[in-house]
Amino acid sequence: MRVRPAPLVSLLAAVLAAMLLVACLPTASSEPGPDPVEPTATAQVTGSVDPDGTDTPEEFAKDMRASQVVAEQYWGQKLGGSFQPVSQVLPYREEGEVACAGQPLPLNNAVYCSAGDFIAYDVNWAFAAFQQIGDAFVFYLLGHEYAHGVQARLGIRKQFTIEQELQADCMSGAFIGDMVRQKALSMQDDDATELADGLEAVGDDPDQPWFAPGSHGSPAQRFQSFANGYNDSLQACGL
After folding, report:
1. What distance in Å separates the CA atoms of residue 217 and residue 68, rounded to the nearest whole number?
2. Among 24, 37, 130, 177, which residue's beta carbon has the most beta carbons within 10 A?
């Protein structure tokens, strides 16, 4: 996925193709400030998805910056003059290096912290996913966490975690889909499959109760929520 490049791919056809192609997937659960911290090591993401050539720290950092800029542009359009961007997007390398409301953030994670109004992510974990799944995953990941920031701004608080998370997936889909339609982003040939792979990788385990705190949804639920937002914009997300 790229900012302002070449021709668009029909998402509906690509998504249907991706749904059929999903097989061996991972099972592990312009300048917005200073440059992000670059990864220093490649954490392992289990699975058998082949890398697509997006394997340099410089390209990863560039895509993280671009995804933040485009997300700020998108939500500025949707929320108008009342919109305030998320204060920071913080990479971290070690467990506990960044805390949210006094709670240290673990490795292999990305979160929106409402207490500090920032997004934080394990840079080595995210870079490993970027290498193995592709650059579209970066735009989904940032889009999902930015959606939580927008939920906080709108005062949205669902009864169950899974409702909050699936709505954020839908909002991330709307963000990417609408910006593709505006030609601020373009879908490249492999992007739909990369998005399907990424949503498979972050889906809950089959034995995770839907009502448990921290539940995000099955891979199928997460993919469907994302696709709903992509195809039908925010009207599909219950905002």
Report:
1. 25
2. 130
**Residues 50-66, mean pLDDT to the nearest whole number:** 77
* Domain count for the chain: 1
* Other beta carbons less than 10 A from residue 127's beta carbon: 28
Burial class of residue 159 in the structure, from the number of CB atoms within 10 Å of its CB (0-12 exposed, 13-18 middle, 19+ buried): exposed
CA distance 187 to 8: 5
| Residue 53 burial class via C-beta count within 10 angstroms: exposed 0-12, middle 13-18, buried 19 and up | exposed
In a domain, 136, yes or no: yes
Assign 112 a pLDDT band (cuts: 50, 70, 90). Answer: very high
Average model confidence (pLDDT) for the chain?
79
* Strand-strand pairing, 118-122 and 88-92: parallel
Structure tokens at 84: 């305030």
Asked whether 42 and 131 are in contact (CB, 8 A), the reply is yes
3-class SS shares of the chain: helix, strand, coil, % to 5 = 50, 10, 40
Q: Is residue 38 part of a domain?
A: no
Question: What are 118-130's pLDDT values in tens digits?
Answer: 999 999 999 998 9
Structure tokens at 155: 């005062």
Q: 75: domain range?
A: 2-26+49-236
> For 30-168, where are the E strands, in sequence order?
88-92, 99-100, 103-104, 110-113, 118-122
Decide the pairing of beta strands 99-100 and 185-186.
unpaired
User: 169, 168, 163, 165: which is closest to 150 by C-alpha?
Assistant: 168
